[in-house]
Amino acid sequence: MTSKKIVLHFPQRLVDQPIVYKLVKEFDLQFNILKASVTPQEEGLMVLELVGKKENFDKGVEYLKSCGVKIEPLSKDVVRDEHKCTSCGVCVPVCPTGALSVDTKSRKINFDNKKCIACEICVKICPPRAMEVRF
Amino acid sequence: MRTIKEINEKIKKGEVVVVTAEEVIDIVKDKGAKRAAQEIDVVTTGTFGPMCSSGAYFNIGHSKPRIKLGGGVCTFNGIPLYTGFAAVDVFLGATAIADDDPRNKIFPGEFKYGGGHVIQELVAGKNIKLEGTAYGTDCYPAKKIQATINIKDLNEAVLFNFRNCYQNYNVAVNLSDKAIYTYMGMLKPNLGNANYCSAGQLSPLLKDPDYRTIGVGTKIFLGGGIGYVAWQGTQHNPSVKRKANGIPQAPAGTIAVIGDLKQMKPEWLVGVSMLGYGVTLSVGIGVPIPILDEEILKSAAVCDEEIYTQIVDYSHAYPHCVPGSLGEVNYAQLKTGKIIVKDKEVPTGSLSSYSKACEIAGELKAWIKKGDFLLTEPVEKLPNAASGYTFKPLKEGPSIS
Predict the structure, then answer these.
(1) Can you give the residue range of the structural domain that contains B143?
(2) Which of A82, B61, B64, B82 has its CA 20 to 30 A from that of B392?
């Protein structure tokens, strides 16, 4: 199984096409939309997590490219410097996906990278600046 | 029941019974206050959070030829220090920033580096670039110095924080329709989040609410080393409203603390940046509470459910000094991750690290058990609620000409 987060840029003409539907139907890929900005008459942007068999994943990506969708890996990844984090928790209520949460027992702050959509809000508001963007 | 002297004898013999301010809660629930007070000698508290009125003074030693920095300019890694003392005594404040820092010009400013960070780097043993300029005198002719300094080479390096360890603190929210950037963190519009800043049931002054044992001269855990309570802190305000258990319901007492910076550790003095607000220093403090009688034990065993604080709007009420509260919550409610404000469920965030506070209380407990840390008798009490000591606003008006 392959699981990758990718960024799709749609040209204007593809915005009203059921592209994601085809990924599911024809390539048996699971998808999770992490971020989407698709407005008629404008270039669309979508951040997708695609999960499926390696060969299906590759075929799906080929299909997207053949349609004229520009694909980039979600190259920005937010990581936490464990030495800098003081586990205060000021990041928790501003994280939109619950990737940052409080362990109710130890009161330490957990960071679940899988839930992170790299919105970067935590990066700037973290007092000891423990959250970093990696490219 | 027992005296500090007797407790110290037990510490020396290795017979002392020490528990943390968190552990004592369940012990009292199990055994009752009377029996617990007979058994427990010391309760250790802890707190770790941003404390802006922190700083350190240094004597950097004399250059050849001598320079009089007093009345001149001195910077550490570009961060200006206060020089209004003798020739080579300088004071670095936690919130100091470089003259060329962009501040809030592009809002919200990032405040990446300042006094708090320099203090942390010094404590970590890093080399720091010192630059100084002066006007020159007959006895201090040099007008300029440059040096690379290291904490181990300085004559004195002393942490001296004149307001730390707030006894309780506001919960900050934002009633306006745009995000605001405060010393309580970023507050999302329309009650988007509620930020608090206290270790609650572990916080030193909340566990000795009437300052019966914590006073001038009390020996404490400070920044990973040993420090002392030097005085009541600035803005000390013991007369705020209190619950029947004696716990203040709003920010109340504070302490000024002092200690040798050279023996402190960078994990307990952390330079932090508050987006759109400024730089500060997160300080780790732990205070031992000697259990001299049952009343002291009962106060030390107060839990989060019994400690209440006020919800304050930081978009208007706080900046304009409008009194009032949007409601009262306790720390157990805050720690569930959400509270109700104006009928809305609001997620909570903390600026004070409870897990670090726990570690501090545990570390201090270990020091006492090992016999490394004896308790001190306070030489003077802090002004309590009965003292009439208050926190006054500025009387504004034209300056005298």
Answers:
(1) 55-159
(2) B82
pLDDT in the model for residue A20: 84
Beta strand segments in chain A, E: 2-10, 30-37, 44-52, 70-73, 77-80, 100-102, 109-111, 131-134
Mean pLDDT, to the nearest integer, of B309-327? 97
Distance, in angstroms, between B18 CA and closest chain A CA? 21
Which structure tokens are listed for A22? 């085809």
Has B165 been annotated as catalytic?
A: no
Task: Identify how many contiguous H helices and E strands chain B contains and give both numbers.
Answer: 7, 26
Model pLDDT for residues B70-85, shown as the tens digit of each residue: 999 999 999 999 999 9
Note the pLDDT of residue B364.
Answer: 98
**B382 in any annotated domain:** no
Query: Looking at the domain assignment, is residue B65 inside a domain?
Result: yes
pTM: 0.88
Which residues on chain A are in Cβ contact (under 8 Å) with B358?
Answer: 107
Mutate to test the interface with A, among B355, B356, B360 (most CBs of A within 10 A): B355
Q: Which residues contact B343 (CB under 8 A, 6 or more apart)?
A: none
Q: How far is CA B227 from the centre of its chain?
A: 12
Closest-CA distance, A74 to chain B, in angstroms, reads: 25
Instruction: Give SS3 for B169.
Output: coil
Whole-number Å distance between alpha carbons of B219 and A55:
67
Q: Over the stretch B210-257, which tens digit does the pLDDT of each residue have? A: 999 999 999 999 999 999 999 999 999 999 999 999 999 999 999 999
Q: What's the pLDDT tens digit per position in B370-382?
A: 999 999 999 999 9
Reported as a single tens digit per residue, the pLDDT across A31-83 is 888 888 877 777 888 888 889 999 998 899 899 988 888 888 776 789 999 99
Q: Does B352 reach chain A within 8 Å, measured CB to CB?
A: yes
Q: What is the interface pTM, i.e. ipTM, of the complex?
A: 0.95
* Cβ <8 Å between B186 and A88: no
Domains of chain A, earliest start first: 2-73 (3.30.70.260), 77-134 (3.30.70.20)
What is the pairing mode between strands B89-93 and B185-187? Answer: unpaired
Question: Is B112 an 8 Å CB contact of chain A?
Answer: yes
Asked whether residue B117 is assigned to any structural domain, the reply reads yes
Domain count, chain B: 1
Is A93 in contact with B353 (Cβ distance < 8 A)?
no
Residue B334 lies in a domain: no
Chain A interface includes B341 (CB < 8 A): no
